[in-house]
Amino acid sequence: MEEPVTAGRARRRPRTTSAILRCAVAMVIVLATTQTPARAEEPTPVLRQSIAADQPLATGRAELATGHVDLGPRYVDDRWTLLIHDGTQARQVWRNPDEALLRVSDAALQTVPDDPAYAFLGVDAGKRVYVVPQTQNQNVVWLGWNTQDPRVMQTIDRGVTLTLLRVRGPGNLTTYLQSGNFAAPQPLWRSADSTAQPFWAEVNTHTHANWVFTAPGVYLVAVQASADLINGETVSATRTLRFAVGDTTSADEAFAAAADVPTAAGQAPTGEARASDDEPAGPSTTLLLIALGGAAALLAVGLVLLLLRGRGAKRRAEQERAAAPSEGQR
């Protein structure tokens, strides 16, 4: 007579466990489908660099045609902004993007390989394009990004989101990473895509990438840098990078080009901005918080039910043993 009861309890437990597993699976699905920025993995070997807190902000126009240059967030007069870190000279400085012209000379010309792995460039194999390479070419400006300003590293939570908002120019721009000769390319930014394109850079990151321009001329590249701070605030700044691609492209024309910088949906306004922590979270953040809260609540309820069922089963077993006749009474 006891077998049906035992079997019944055995059947109920898997149903409760299955419900908890279904909740966990649902949480994983929600988290997987929530939109998050791409992650720019650090190529190997890691680029070693440190930046001093007292590096000055240079003024006046400068044309950077060779040497080491990074895009990076920094504080100026206690405001978060996005600047050019100029390492082309012995004395490293920061520069306002409006006053820094990135010259991509004819020495950057390369032929698009006949390889389907590079189809994302949207350029026919054999065509010549201008490439700022991930590995330094001494005759071409070497452009990357860093999140290594000392105050930035002290104040941001985990990292920075760099977002391509718009590219204006005579051709297309594609930025991609490739770790080693045999690794698949990792596209980060494509001006052929009209949507805002974010990627994530960890704190204390220094990375260089391949920048491919399909035609000579002036390019204006609107980039946004945003981050959550350890004090709960969110900071954001949008600036425009100026490129003169090709030897014959006029520097004066590049500096004179007007930058009509857009604002990405759900992002902070153009220029330097600071949002307080009492502003509403973005849609993806809200969805993620709801999903995590709901999943945690369901898991907690499931665990409580299992605990109660286990205690109930224990009490019933003790009652059955107490009621059963002893060996001496049989």
List the helices and strands and how they pair.
Blueprint: H1 2-33, E1 38-39, E2 57-58, E3 62-64, E4 67-76, E5 79-87, E6 93-95, E7 100-104, E8 109-111, E9 128-132, E10 141-146, H2 150-155, E11 159-168, E12 173-177, E13 186-190, E14 197-202, E15 206-208, E16 210-213, E17 217-228, E18 234-245, H3 251-256, E19 271-275, H4 283-323
Parallel strand pairs: 1-14, 2-6, 3-7, 4-10, 7-18
Antiparallel strand pairs: 4-5, 5-6, 8-9, 9-16, 10-15, 11-14, 11-17, 12-13, 12-16, 17-18, 18-19
Shape: globular
Class from helix and strand fractions: alpha+beta
Quaternary structure type: single chain
> Major sheet, described briefly?
8 strands, mixed
How helix-rich are the residues, as a percent range? 25-40%
The low-confidence parts are 1-13, 23-36, 264-288, 326-330
Classify the beta-strand content into a percent band: 25-35%
Termini distance?
A: 18 Å
**What is the gyration radius calculated from CA atoms?**
29 Å
Number of strands: 19
Q: How many helices in DSSP terms?
A: 4
The average pLDDT value, as a whole number, equals 79
The ordered H/E elements are: HEEEEEEEEEEHEEEEEEEEHEH
